[in-house]
C-alpha cells in the first residue's frame, strides 16, 4: 500500500488502542512495546485465519493443508523425514514447511506461531506452562572425520589423541557444544586448543571433508553421510566416545494447541512413530 494509506491505518490503530504504536526516526519507524505486542498478536490471528481456510479446504477437497514442523537435526532424520515420506503416500495434498535449527530458535518460532510444533528441547527461560511436552529420548553424538584421516589408522584410539587436531564446534553456549565440553571434563581431558565455531551443519561437513578437523554431529546424521550406498560422502565416524549423547529431547507444542486438521494428522503419525520406537526399545 502507499505510505499515506499506511500512515492513516496506523493512526486509526493508535486511536483504537489509545497508545502510541511506533516512533519515527531518520531511517524509518520503530515499534513501541505496545506496537510489538499488537504485531505479535496480529500475526497469530492471521495464522489462525490461514488455518481456518486450510480446514475449510480439507472439508471440501479432502486431506490437504500446510503443516509447519521444527526439528533439531537428529530427530529430523530419524522421525520427521520418515513420517513425511509415509504420509505423502496417503495424503499427497498435505504441504510441509520444515525448519531445522537449534532448540532456542525453534522455541522462539513456536511462540511466534511460525511453526506448529517441534522436536527439540525447551531452552532455559521459556515458560513450561506455555507448552506441551512429550519426552522422546536422548540424542547420540558421533565424532566424524574425513575419509583417510590419520586417526582412522589408529588402533585402540583414545579420545585424548583427537585433541591434537582442529575441532569444528557450535558457538559457545550451544547445547551440543556444552555436551562435548562436559564429556571432556568428565573424561579428565582439556578442551580442544583449536576450535572453528559454526552452527551450520553444511559448513561443518565441508570443513571436515577438506581438512583434518574433527566434528561432533548427531549420530543419525553421521550414519547418513558415512554410508557410501546413500550419499557416498567422505565422512567417517571415529571409533571413540561412542557413549556421548545430548540430553533428552521432546515433542513440543503450544499450550493451548490449535492445529489445523492436516497438522493434527501429521502430529498423530509422529506420536505413533515415537510410541512404536519406545516399545521396540523396551522403554
Automatic annotation (TrEMBL):
It holds the Pfam family LysR_substrate. PROSITE patterns: HTH_LYSR (PS50931). InterPro entries: HTH-type_LysR_regulators, LysR_HTH_N, LysR_subst-bd, WH-like_DNA-bd_sf, WH_DNA-bd_sf. Residues 1-32 form the HTH lysR-type domain. SUPFAM superfamilies: Periplasmic binding protein-like II, Winged helix' DNA-binding domain. The keyword Transmembrane does not apply. This is DNA-binding transcriptional regulator, LysR family. Keywords: DNA-binding, Transcription, Transcription regulation. GO terms for cellular component: cytosol. Belongs to the LysR transcriptional regulatory family. GO terms for molecular function: DNA binding; DNA-binding transcription factor activity.
Amino acid at each position: 500500500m502507499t505510505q499515506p494509506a499506511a500512515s492513516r491505518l496506523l493512526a486509526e490503530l493508535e486511536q483504537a488502542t489509545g497508545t502510541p504504536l511506533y516512533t519515527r526516526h531518520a531511517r524509518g519507524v520503530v515499534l513501541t512495546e505496545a506496537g510489538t505486542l499488537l504485531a505479535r498478536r496480529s500475526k497469530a490471528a492471521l495464522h489462525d485465519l490461514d488455518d481456518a481456510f486450510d480446514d475449510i479446504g480439507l472439508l471440501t477437497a479432502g486431506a490437504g493443508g500446510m503443516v509447519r514442523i521444527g526439528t533439531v537435526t537428529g530427530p529430523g532424520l530419524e522421525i520427521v523425514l520418515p513420517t513425511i515420506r509415509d504420509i505423502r503416500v496417503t495424503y499427497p495434498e498435505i504441504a510441509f514447511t520444515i525448519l531445522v535449527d537449534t532448540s532456542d530458535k525453534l522455541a522462539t518460532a513456536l511462540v511466534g506461531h511460525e511453526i506448529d510444533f517441534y522436536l527439540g528441547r525447551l531452552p532455559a527461560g521459556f515458560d513450561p506452562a506455555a507448552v506441551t511436552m512429550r519426552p522422546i529420548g536422548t540424542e547420540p553424538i558421533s565424532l566424524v572425520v574425513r575419509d583417510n584421516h590419520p586417526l582412522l589408522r589408529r588402533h585402540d584410539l583414545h579420545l585424548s589423541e583427537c585433541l591434537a587436531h582442529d575441532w569444528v564446534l557450535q558457538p559457545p553456549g550451544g547445547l551440543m557444544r556444552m555436551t562435548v565440553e562436559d564429556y571432556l571434563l568428565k573424561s579428565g581431558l582439556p578442551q580442544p586448543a583449536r576450535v572453528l565455531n559454526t552452527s551450520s551443519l553444511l559448513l561443518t561437513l565441508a570443513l571436515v571433508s577438506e581438512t583434518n578437523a574433527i566434528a561432533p554431529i548427531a549420530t543419525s546424521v553421521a550414519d547418513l553421510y558415512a554410508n557410501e550406498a546413500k550419499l557416498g560422502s567422505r565422512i567417517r565416524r571415529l571409533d571413540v566416545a561412542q557413549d556421548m549423547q545430548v540430553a533428552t529431547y521432546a515433542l513440543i507444542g503450544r499450550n493451548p494447541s490449535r492445529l489445523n486438521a492436516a497438522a493434527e494428522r501429521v502430529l498423530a503419525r509422529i506420536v505413533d512413530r515415537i510410541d512404536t520406537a519406545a516399545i521396540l526399545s523396551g522403554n
